[in-house]
Prior knowledge:
Blueprint: H1 14-25, H2 28-40, H3 44-72, H4 78-83, H5 90-122, H6 131-143, H7 145-164, H8 167-194, H9 199-207, H10 216-230, H11 236-241, H12 250-279, H13 289-299, H14 304-337, H15 343-362, H16 378-405, H17 408-415, H18 424-449
This protein binds tryptophan (TRP).
Residues 24-25, 27-30, 103, 228-229, 231, 234, 236, 322, 325-326 line the site of tryptophan (TRP).
Amino acid sequence: xxxxxxxxxxxxxxxxxxxxxxxxxxxxxxxxxxxxxxxxxxxxxxxxxxxxxxxxxxxxxxxxxxxxxxxxxxxxxxxxxxxxxxxxxxxxxxxxxxxxxxxxxxxxxxxxxxxxxxxxxxxxxxxxxxxxxxxxxxxxxxxxxxxxxxxxxxxxxxxxxxxxxxxxxxxxxxxxxxxxxxxxxxxxxxxxxxxxxxxxxxxxxxxxxxxxxxxxxxxxxxxxxxxxxxxxxxxxxxxxxxxxxxxxxxxxxxxxxxxxxxxxxxxxxxxxxxxxxxxxxxxxxxxxxxxxxxxxxxxxxxxxxxxxxxxxxxxxxxxxxxxxxxxxxxxxxxxxxxxxxxxxxxxxxxxxxxxxxxxxxxxxxxxxxxxxxxxxxxxxxxxxxxxxxxxxxxxxxxxxxxxxxxxxxxxxxxxxxxxxxxxxxxxxxxxxxxxxxxxxxxxxxxxxxxxxxxxxx
Length: 457
Ligand code: TRP
């Protein structure tokens, strides 16, 4: 069984493991999705639930996925063939490939907006603090079908080119060098935002909870966001786990990634919400929030336009890091399952598939706004299908497998790197949570959020 994977490339260094995993986790989920969802669901209470979901479900699922991927050294589907007795588990992998497609279909659209904003920022089209003007610019961009599609396909072409370059070279280098700069930029925006006259209102919104805003749907959204942001529940981390070195400390790497990911999200929140309240934007503005408020913050500072361009360039780069990991799931799968399928061929196939699936998502803000499936436009449908159904369901199965079927002894061996790490207590805690807490929480939240159970009366 080992033969086909002998030549599997891996992450070359310890730091590379951390930065590449982080590169997958940090992306539009932090900078775009987290702030707008927090804004839509009332602020601090949502944030708190999101943090609980990350600790009690997200982190355990992440550790489980990396563990299984590293153990099997294989992609999101054949990992299951190697670790599980029943073939039925491969369905979890298959649902992950579907989820990767659903996510990429709308993610590439939003990434296209970011690239578009790099250009708009350089041309000075975004130098305004007026909500009406900012909304106009954003609205005109997303509703223009041709430019939106052109940007989306451009993004797809760019990511494919990087993927064809290979795992280590392509992913590691891009992410490693640029993440720290994005971090510094975010801190700069935060400082400007915090010194705005009405910054206090934004901070209060973000940090003092009002639990009356919390519904079953909001809790499901928070859980889905935790999955989305950590890139878990669908095989990305499994595929990445297969590239992990044998001496990597999996629980430690996962915890660091989770903390760094959370920090970036909080910085994005601190950058955005003071500006929302200061300039009279709508906290619940939805997907446009980032694109309207960030330009306003920059427009009110010296050399703002230059910084604005840099900010959107770096955000674009972060989204590329995240997209590389999404792509990697179907590409690794096709390369390793289909006969004679080179990485190059697999990548091109996936890119074409995505180019097609992405069209209705992109047109959801224009000509296809009224086309609905289950009451949602395509953009929201892809988003909710992946975040609220496929990923939590995948996460549930991953927890059940790692906690109950894989074998506690094997878990201990894998997570302690054959007893070379002395992390027995950490492993026991992990097992406790992954066996009893996470699966139950996911199940309850899903049933409740989908209206099949009524927990809040
Ligand atoms: N986590 C990334 C973000 O926050 C998005 C992402 C990358 C992702 N790979 C994933 C989401 C796999 C879910 C599954 O932007």
